[in-house]
Design a protein that fits this description.
Distance between the termini: 56 Å
Helix content: under 10%
CATH class of the largest domain: Mainly Beta
Strand order of the largest sheet: 3-5-8-7
CATH superfamily of the largest domain: Immunoglobulins
Number of helices: 0
Strand content: over 45%
Largest sheet: 4 strands, antiparallel
Low-confidence stretches: none
Mean pLDDT: 93
Number of domains: 2
Radius of gyration: 21 Å
Number of strands: 10
CATH architecture of the largest domain: Sandwich
Shape: flat
CATH topology of the largest domain: Immunoglobulin-like
Structural class: mainly beta
Length: 147
C-alpha cells in the first residue's frame, strides 16, 4: 500500500508528477505511478472550457455560449474585467448573485474558415493573488456552408 499526500500549499491549477517505486522484483525493478491532480480554489468555471463545435460560415449573427463563474468562499468576489486573446472572441458578464455567481457570455463573430482557438481571461478582486485570474479556453471550427 502506497499513500501519497499533496502539499496544502499546492497552487490552484493542474498538478502532474510521478512516483517512482524501486522494488526487489527482478521482472519489475522500477514501477512508475503517474500522479494527476486538479487543485480547485474558491472560484470555479462551469463548464471549465467553451466548445463552439462545428459552425457554418458565414455566421448570420454572433454565436454565443454561457459559462457560470461560481464563488465557493464566504468572501464576495467581483468580476473586474474580461479579456480575449482572439479578436473574433469577446465576452460579457451578467451578475446572477452579487459576489457569488456570474454568467460569462462568450461571443464568436465571423472569423476565418477553419479551426479557431483562444482564451478569455477573467480578472476578479479575489483577495488571494493566485486566484484573481481565471483562464477560459475557447475553441471550435468554422466551416463553409455546403463545404
Amino acid at each position: 500500500l502506497i499513500t501519497a499526500t499533496l502539499s496544502p500549499k499546492l497552487p490552484v491549477g493542474v498538478f502532474r508528477s510521478r512516483i517512482v517505486v524501486k522494488t526487489t522484483s527482478e521482472s519489475n525493478p522500477v514501477v512508475t505511478i503517474p500522479v494527476f491532480a486538479r487543485v480547485e480554489g474558491d472560484l470555479s468555471l462551469i463548464p471549465s472550457d467553451v466548445s463552439f463545435g462545428l459552425l457554418e460560415a458565414p455566421l448570420e449573427s454572433p454565436a454565443t455560449r454561457t459559462v457560470r463563474l461560481q464563488n465557493r468562499s464566504e468572501t464576495p468576489v467581483h468580476v473586474l474585467s474580461l479579456k480575449s486573446n482572439n479578436p473574433a472572441l469577446s465576452a460579457g458578464v451578467e451578475k446572477v448573485s452579487s459576489g457569488k455567481v456570474y454568467d460569462i457570455e462568450v461571443r464568436l463573430k465571423n472569423s476565418d474558415v477553419g479551426p479557431f482557438r483562444g482564451q478569455v481571461t477573467i480578472t476578479t478582486d479575489h483577495p488571494d493573488p493566485d486566484q484573481r485570474e481565471l483562464v477560459l479556453p475557447v475553441y471550435g471550427i468554422l466551416a463553409r456552408k455546403g463545404g
